[in-house]
Amino acid sequence: MTDAHEAGAPARCTGLARVTDLGPEELERSWGREPRHVPAAALPTPFDDLLTTRDVDDLLSRRGLRTPFLRVARDGHTLADADFTRGGGVGAGVTDQLDDTALLRLFAEGHTLVLQGLHRTHPPVLELAQDLAADLGHPVQVNAYVTPPSSRGFAAHYDVHDVFVLQTAGEKRWRLHAPVQPHPLRDQPWQDRRPAVEQAAAGEPRLEVTLRPGDVLYVPRGWLHSATALGGVSTHLTAGIHVWHRGHVAEAVLEAARRGLAAQESQRTSLRPGVDVADPEAIADDLAAVREALLQAVADVDASAVAARLAARQRAAQRPAPVDPVGTVEALADGLDDLAVAPRAHLQ
């Protein structure tokens, strides 16, 4: 059998062009606001180069993957890691490697397999994630959801990141409802609003669509969604877009202002002996002084200081293209005269 990754693969099309038919201006108008279904016919290339059934079985059975690179769920309930892991055997004594025999049983019983962090473990998906992050300017992670026939892995819920769903095999029926918490932050998970989520999901969906191989569904953060596999096994990739938002800017501004206050001697002096910091009246004068200084410190923060702090977070959130440690050192050992040097893709 010819591997789609090696031969017969479509011409490479990177980033946003693989997942949406919208141009930059159209995408900006709908970004974070409305879900969108894009049929395969509207996109330039299918997804059979990204993840096949053979790829899934290889990851589950032959790569020595450990938790948390896999979750197993059914009808909204996630299994404990011990239900599908075991020791690696002689020479690999870790206790949480994936147990393929347990996964065979669980999948046959109707459990969904969630391969997490494929942007770190599967090269074709790594390339897509990096290209997508470069186009969007937001960090990207990719998981795969492999669902047995006529099964549902998760109940209706919302995510705290935007999502592009790429259907790679089989069919899956999706139901989407409007948010109960628009634009939720990472500390505002759907479990905190479970009654509202369940009530909203019981109503008529705003969008109901069946995804087929090559289709894409864009789901903004906060939109309620659930999906059920139809007929055979259904596999899709979920590209999670961990969006930057003004809250991140606010955090950077406040951190820069805090450091500005720390540079002022008047803000570093000790409070008086016997002060009761639990008494609002006792700290009223100090609070007024801090407020005044803090407001001025916030006003003094410039854009370059904020950008520098966000840049550090950006570098930590998205890794550049892989480098070959052994091959690079081996090449350097032969001298620099004929050595070809290329920039490392996506290096900040």
Give an overview of the whole structure.
- By secondary structure, the protein is α+β, with helices and mostly antiparallel strands.
- It contains ten helices and eleven strands.
- The protein has helices spanning 24-30, 53-61, 100-108, 118-121, 123-136, 194-201, 246-262, 284-300, 303-317, 325-333; strands spanning 36-38, 70-74, 77-78, 85-86, 97-98, 112-115, 140-147, 162-177, 207-211, 216-219, 224-241.
- The strands form two sheets. Strands 1, 2, 3, 6, 7, 8, 9, 10 and 11 form a nine-stranded antiparallel beta sheet that branches. A two-stranded antiparallel sheet has the order 4-5.
- Strand 2 and strand 3 (77-78) form a beta hairpin.
- Helix 7 (246-262) packs across helix 8 (284-300) and helix 7 (246-262) packs across helix 9.
- The longest helix has 17 residues, at 246-262.
- It starts with 23 loop residues before the first helix and ends in a 15-residue tail after the last helix.
